[in-house]
């Protein structure tokens, strides 16, 4: 098992961090696609489409063709959730990581390094939720290279965030993760996080039954929870 170390982000890590983040998010697109196809709403819609085309034209083959076209069109639509999220991150906080996390108050950015290569990352910043401002920090941009998972890196990165928040007297750490990131949910729950809410990122997400889960970990000795 390869050894690794966790350290604060440096400017030379810029390209590696952005690439690692993009790959980590985009790899969840197929799982999102499968989740949506397994939903009762999607299956009912495909069945209705098949029956409607079959009745209208009289050929079941055309009905199957219509379903196939919808399935093919749905893939880029579902993938757009991931690509739009990546583009937004790369053009905002991950565009200038030093300013976003190392110069901003109560913020930080760490990388996990193995063999001179960045294989993991995580950030922390004040929560943007007005109800949590001054009370909770937010764990953000967690990602670990596929080849280095299962070695405790994610747990160690999460631990850095929790220690950082405790040292500054915060009462909680919050985070968001998608419903298809099951491994991430297990990791966070194992570190003391509990699910406190769920929401759809857009109207399209709501129609496709795609949700983002909100998690919270209360810290002993911090400021009182809201």
Automatic annotation (TrEMBL):
Which Pfam families does the entry link to? Acetyltransf_1
The record's keywords, sorted A to Z, are:
Membrane, Transferase, Transmembrane, Transmembrane helix
Which residue range or ranges hold the N-acetyltransferase domain?
A: 69-220
Query: Which Gene Ontology MF annotations are present?
Result: N-acetyltransferase activity
Residues passing through the membrane, by range: 44-77
Top-rank taxon? Eukaryota
This chain belongs to the protein called NT8F2 acetyltransferase
């Amino acid at each position: 098992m390869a050894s690794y170390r966790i350290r604060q982000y440096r400017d030379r890590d810029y390209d590696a961090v952005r690439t690692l983040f993009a790959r980590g998010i985009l790899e969840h697109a197929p799982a999102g696609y499968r989740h949506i196809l397994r939903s009762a709403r999607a299956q009912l819609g495909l069945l209705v489409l098949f029956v409607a085309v079959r009745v209208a034209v009289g050929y079941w083959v055309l009905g199957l063709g219509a379903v196939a076209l919808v399935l093919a069109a749905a893939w880029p639509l579902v993938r757009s959730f991931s690509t739009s999220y990546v583009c937004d991150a790369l053009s905002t906080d991950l565009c200038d990581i030093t300013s976003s996390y190392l110069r901003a108050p109560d913020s930080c950015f760490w990388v996990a390094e193995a063999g001179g290569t960045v294989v993991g990352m995580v950030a922390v910043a004040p929560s943007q939720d007005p109800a949590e401002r001054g009370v909770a920090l937010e764990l953000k941009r967690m990602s670990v290279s596929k080849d280095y998972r299962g070695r405790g890196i994610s747990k160690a990165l999460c631990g850095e965030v929790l220690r950082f928040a405790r040292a500054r007297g915060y009462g909680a750490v919050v985070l968001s993760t998608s419903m298809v990131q099951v491994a991430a949910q297990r990791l966070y729950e194992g570190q003391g996080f509990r699910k406190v809410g769920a929401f759809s990122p857009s109207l399209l997400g709501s129609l496709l039954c795609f949700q983002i889960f909100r998690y919270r970990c209360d810290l002993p000795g911090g400021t009182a929870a809201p």
